[in-house]
Design brief:
The structure is a homodimer of 567-residue chains.
Chain A (H helix, E strand, L loop, with lengths): L4 H27 L4 H12 L4 H4 L1 H7 L4 H24 L3 H6 L1 H25 L11 H16 L3 H10 L6 H30 L4 H36 L4 H21 L3 H13 L6 H26 L8 H25 L4 H11 L4 H12 L5 H26 L7 H4 L5 E2 L7 H16 L3 H14 L3 E2 L3 E2 L2 E4 L6 E11 L9 E10 L3 H14 L3 H8 L4 H10 L5
Parallel strand pairs in A: 1-5, 3-6, 4-6
Antiparallel strand pairs in A: 2-3, 5-6
Amino acid sequence: MKFTHENGLELLLAVAVLIGAARLLGELARRCNKPPVLGELVAGILLGPSVLGHLVPQAENFLFPTQGPTAMALDGIRFLAVTLFLMVAGMEVDLPTILRHRRTALTVGLGALLLPFSLGLGAAWFAPEWLCFAGGSEHQHLVFSLFVGTALGISALPVLAKILIDLKLFKTDPGMVIIAAAIFIDLVGWNLFGLVMSLHQGGEGGGKEICIRLASTLGFAVFMLTLGRAALARILPWVQAHSSWPAGILGFILTAGLCCAAFTQWLGIHSLFGAFLFGVALGDSPHLRRSIRATLEQFIGFILTPLFFASIGLKIDFLADFSIVPVLVLVACACFGKIPGAWLGARLCGMKGREALAVGVGMNTYGAMEIVLGLTALQAGIISQSLFVAIVVLALGTSLCTSSLLQAVLHRPRAIHLVNQLSSTRFIREIQSRDTSGAIAELCQLAAEKSRLDPAAITAAVMEREALMPTGLPGGLAVPHARLDKLDAPLVVVGLSSQGLDFLSPDDSKSRLIFLILTPGEQSQSQLELLSEIASRFQDPEMVRQASECRGFTEFLALVQSREGTA
Amino acid sequence: MKFTHENGLELLLAVAVLIGAARLLGELARRCNKPPVLGELVAGILLGPSVLGHLVPQAENFLFPTQGPTAMALDGIRFLAVTLFLMVAGMEVDLPTILRHRRTALTVGLGALLLPFSLGLGAAWFAPEWLCFAGGSEHQHLVFSLFVGTALGISALPVLAKILIDLKLFKTDPGMVIIAAAIFIDLVGWNLFGLVMSLHQGGEGGGKEICIRLASTLGFAVFMLTLGRAALARILPWVQAHSSWPAGILGFILTAGLCCAAFTQWLGIHSLFGAFLFGVALGDSPHLRRSIRATLEQFIGFILTPLFFASIGLKIDFLADFSIVPVLVLVACACFGKIPGAWLGARLCGMKGREALAVGVGMNTYGAMEIVLGLTALQAGIISQSLFVAIVVLALGTSLCTSSLLQAVLHRPRAIHLVNQLSSTRFIREIQSRDTSGAIAELCQLAAEKSRLDPAAITAAVMEREALMPTGLPGGLAVPHARLDKLDAPLVVVGLSSQGLDFLSPDDSKSRLIFLILTPGEQSQSQLELLSEIASRFQDPEMVRQASECRGFTEFLALVQSREGTA
């Protein structure tokens, strides 16, 4: 068998279609404020046997052959992608955060882990048929039950972090408790998973083999988190000092990470375990530079990971294998396990009613990790396709609900982001007026059209504020603003002036980029948020210059989004 | 056939060993001031049938199986890696540079392209047996001859750019001419290659098929460089504006690049051609942000590309297939083609004797592209293994020699880099003295030990300079320096002081990071270069703070190398 010219064409098309579709649907999901992994999975389901395979089987067979060199190459790439994804996920596990909040992290974490673990274990042990257990020896049944427990015990760290940031809860008390506990659970959960895998692999060899495998799994974990971590802290500066930058350090990280993955694959646990632990040991080294972290996170997180999640749908017919019973059982175990468990932990740490409930609801989030765990168990023959589909449904369902539930529990408003406030209909490419009050009137006129308020009233409010203290900022930026009682939502109008207008800025610069910011009277917070975001994004005068030279709204929005000057 | 747990282990090991060995030997090559691609190729030769396969065949078979899922996965990854490498290489082709220097670029480029092309074509046509032509139809012979001509016509843009920077020639007249001409040759050469491939593929179909293929190749090239380029310039800001940053734009670039590659693969030319042209169209867009460029260049250039070059050695027995005759023929065609051709072009543009000769010598550089071209022709069955090995030897040989030859022709000193001047034996972790003159004496004492000059004389010279004007800079940096007639080479001693010393800096800051810079009396340039490099690397006070807190020399060197603060 040879990798031919035609295989090359097939592989290029398959990878291009997977990356493109995953991105497209990931963006759609993001638009609807859903986690991108949802879109990526759906992309694979649409392209795989579930949909495209049903509708146009020839197209699916052509794009994603299941046999031959192209299929093997895709399998290999998918395998490397998920291994590297776990490495990057491990890099996000910040051990010092757990140590700083060790009491709450341990209490909440153990509560949120043990209760759902026990429920899952019990359900799988006493009612395996509800979870589509294919049957097998008692040993297989035990492994199956332990796996279900572990899968229910784990939480979705990245989804959680995103939700907390979105609800401005990240730096609050419940936020930090949730994150520290989730990191703790991630760490313990993956170790549990390693033990389940070694039990599974060593199973047929009897007690001695099991002991050896369990011991080597634990030994490897302890080694990586202590000596391995310390060794990396010494090796990283050495590699950076004595090799070309950044090629040397990137090469070292990939080589060492893949070697750790290969080691645990050889142990029979799975490459994911080694890659994750290497990521943990690497990630909190103070010697890992930001730009290296960014390169790894961007290429692996934004290209390889979506490729992996989209490719899951190619292997499994989600429609044929869907079954409602295991979904209900899993959801019940999750809700009656995670929420009370985490709530109890939070109460024990002295948190009040509503906050403790928020911790409980927050921890009940499953996500990408859940799916990776499930797929690995499926491939190892521990669980059936139907249970895997149920796990995917659980993961997506909880990550879809948590955000709204948390908002309901804590009455938190969502953070206001500048980019969401910008629109081509509230953008003036060139302000006509040559004087400041005329320019303000022009911007207010546009704002009035959009908000259906009286333009004269808006202008008067803005001018009044302007008279109090001019809003010109150094570097050519101006931010006239006002609070209006009749407004329901914040409203931003942007105007550019190539000549510059005099907003009496402290450095006497002419303002060429003007943001008119109107906020509802009672929302004092939103005005502050928008003002500070504009000030921080445009603190570099170069950024203001580039913005004022944009030829249209799309270029302007692209510049604001990317936060960085053109090359 | 299934991709099993064992295949996963094999793939992880193979990729880890390839990346690791390529990096290691690439770094070694860089230490010896040779292009890293040399080390990467040698890594593959050592691991492949040429060496490891001869010595320990079992190990080679275990690590790099030639059959089965792992081999297919590696082939697929290698194929994607070289395709993406060409995309990144295309991004370096800066069309505006050619346009700015269009007269010289065209004249020198055509001279440096046509003469070696004709010599190669002639040699291959009239003496095919010298170039190990396997025999075949007249059509195959014609394709073979055209390929040899094309391979000799192309130049190595990245190697050239590096050599010119290294010899401080990049911004000079001959430097810009060489670069512009090399970009022009790259562009024309890849189009020639595309035509050769379409001639090869369409060959058996007769005249009409050939015409269709040639037309579609040229049509695609013209489209990408005109309409495609213009379309990208409009699409990029749109994608940036309306998708998440930077995931959206990365996903778009990869998807679109792979689609272009797939299109030319489908045309029968090869994915490389489409990827390269997409890179060209993308690369000079003013809307491609620096950080996106960096992510692509770093992951593809420093991970995937070395993986590809190392994997070449796995396929070919370089020792068994080496033959001296084709090497000599190729080297003769190159030297008697490139040097006179480029020299003539440079003379026609009015360049003087020595500079014109430098252009000729400079253009006679082959490199990584040559090897990619050769491998593609080998896989398409156009050339034999022996000629491929000869092409590799030509590419490595010329890229090894050019730097020294250019230096000899133009008498250029190499650029002095700060990192090469730093050494653990010229580093004081904590200066003992509490006063400035004591600290200078301490640093000069160490300098004296290394240079075998009189410490008192050094100290006197430095103090004299210090008395003229203090050398404290804002932010905690000080750069005491002197020129010494008896010194043969620049000498830098670094000292840290946690308390800070008073070097009378303009912002009254205490200097905690002190560079003592001693340069030979006649080399006024080297002092300026070192001073300006230190000033620019440490202009951020945060960088000075981090440097002064380093626990040892390795950490200090790592910080200087990576130019960036810790996270």
